[in-house]
Amino acid sequence: MTDSQTKSWIFLSTAIASQIEPAGINSISNIADGINHSIPTDKELQSALAWLTITGLVTKKGKKYSLTEKGKMDYETASRQTSTILKVWDNLETVLLKYRT
Question: What pLDDT, in 10s, does the model give residues 38-49?
Answer without folding.
Answer: 999 999 999 999
